[in-house]
Design brief:
about 475 residues; 6-stranded antiparallel β-sheet; 5-stranded antiparallel β-sheet; 15 helices; about 30% helix; about 20% strand; elongated
């Protein structure tokens, strides 16, 4: 190991502690201590300007040792600073810059965690966030569900209802916006229950609709509750099948995502005009989301909820609590409805033979293959597997499905039918499904297209069906 060379920090750090100690002995320096201190001693002993002058043993004599020590002590700060800046510039700067980075990102992480329980970017998100930070407010909604049969977490202002006093403190901007929305479309028959106002606020916030038959689910939790309806035809209306052929529409499904949820959700199913028959409405606790909020830390908590049902001009309420992965039946009833508007649009006849697609393009209606029906214009044999829709031209409502149409026409539903227009009741028109893509529909023949409920309602009077 050479003693007539200048030792760099990189070289010294690569040696073992015993080797660094040996160099100290060779240079006449203190050789005991930990490796970093010994390296520092060697570097301080060397020329401050990092010159190429070789260090010789003869310099470290007893007499000048004190002088050289003093000199070196005097120049220690300069030497150390200079040497550190040059030899460790990339490393210390990287460390110094990387250390503040977590400190800068910590506030961001905190700010994202606070609204994590209430993610929807809506007006009432601010309300929900405020509620989460107030102990009195958070307990009020749940207590209301149990004792007052009411959920009152988001009344917009003290002037709205008498229940506004114990509710959350919201900002002036939020209050003004929500109140105006509620006043604009107050179309519900209130029965004196304070949660009518809560539902009105949430419906307007989320753009929900109402109709002849209308069910709304509300709860004050980030858990994912789901509203389900079994229709008279047996069709299951829920988050996995949001539109029924008879015109039922789940137009709002909330708290689906773990990251995007609200403390004040609503789910809403409505029929602009409903078919008659038996209905079943129930609530399912699909997923129990959790968060750092003490109220929502348990993944097995039961969630209180309320369901409001509007049918036949009256309002009914159901209040309950549902456990995770359980169902709670809320209503079972027979309805005498006005008839299904459904998800259908009747297209006027064309003066020349046309395909379904051509007729849809002409009338600006969405075309889907296999969703077209032609009107019965002459005597025809109809297979028992063919879908049929009977249109009441006066009420603009439909009887939907092969079995229901056969029952309405007093025909058997298990064999081929032979029908002609004169077999139909007055003011009705029978539509038979055609799955053909390029079938030419004869001129002067009405056509029926199945579309979304929303599109079907846009072709009707929105004022009649309270449709936005």
């Amino acid at each position: 190991m050479s003693t007539d060379s200048e030792y760099s920090r990189t070289y010294l750090e690569g040696l073992l502690g015993s080797e660094v100690s040996k160099i100290c002995k060779q240079l006449g320096l203190k050789s005991s201590g930990v490796k970093p201190h010994l390296i520092k001693t060697i570097l301080n002993f060397q020329d401050p300007d990092n010159s190429k002058t070789k260090v010789k043993k003869t310099k470290s004599t007893t007499t000048p040792k004190t002088k050289s020590t003093k000199t070196k002590k005097t120049t220690t700060t300069t030497t150390t600073t200079t040497a550190n800046k040059k030899s460790k510039t990339p490393q210390p700067i990287t460390k110094i810059v990387s250390k503040p980075s977590p400190k800068v990102s910590k506030p961001k992480a905190k700010s994202s965690k606070k609204p994590a329980a209430v993610q929807p970017t809506t007006t009432t998100t601010a309300t929900a966030t405020t509620a989460a930070t107030t102990t009195t407010t958070t307990t009020t909604p749940e207590a209301a569900i149990t004792t007052n049969n009411s959920i009152t977490p988001e009344v917009p202002s003290s002037a709205t209802t008498s229940e506004s006093a114990p509710t959350t403190t919201t900002t002036t901007t939020t209050t003004t916006t929500t109140t105006e929305a509620a006043v604009t479309t107050k179309e519900f028959k209130h029965d004196g229950d304070p949660d009518n106002e809560v539902i009105s606020l949430r419906m307007n916030r989320e753009g929900c609709n109402t109709g002849e038959l209308h069910a709304s689910l509300i709860w004050n939790d980030i858990a994912d509750l789901d509203l389900h309806v079994i229709t008279p035809s047996g069709e299951h209306l829920y988050y996995g099948h949001k539109e029924s052929r008879c015109g039922g529409w789940l137009d709002k499904d909330m708290n689906v995502s773990v990251t995007e949820h609200s403390e004040h959700p609503i789910e809403n199913i409505f029929w602009a005009s409903a078919p008659s028959g038996k209905y079943k409405i129930y609530v399912n606790h699909f997923r129990c989301h959790t968060s750092s909020d003490p109220r929502f830390q348990s993944s097995t908590r039961s969630v209180p909820f309320r369901v409001r049902l509007i049918k036949e001009g009256s309002t009914q309420w159901f209040q309950g609590t549902v456990e995770p992965n359980k169902n709670v039946t809320c209503f079972e009833f027979n309805l005498k409805g006005s008839g299904a508007v459904g998800s259908f649009v009747v297209l006027p006849p064309n003066n020349t033979p046309s395909t379904f697609k051509e007729l849809c393009e002409k009338n600006k209606v969405t075309y889907s293959q296999g969703e077209g029906y032609y009107a019965l214009k002459k005597k025809e044999e109809i297979s028992e597997i063919k879908d049929m829709v009977l249109h009441n031209t006066k009420s603009d409502t439909f009887i939907i499905g092969h079995n229901d149409v056969c029952q309405a026409l007093n025909q058997p539903n298990n064999k081929r039918l032979t029908l002609k227009p004169t077999d139909l009741p007055p003011d009705t028109r029978l539509f038979v499904q055609s799955t053909s893509h390029n079938r030419k529909i004869p001129s002067d023949t009405h056509v029926l297209m199945k579309v979304s409920v929303k599109e079907a309602l846009t072709f009707r009077q929105s004022s009649k069906y309270n449709f936005k």
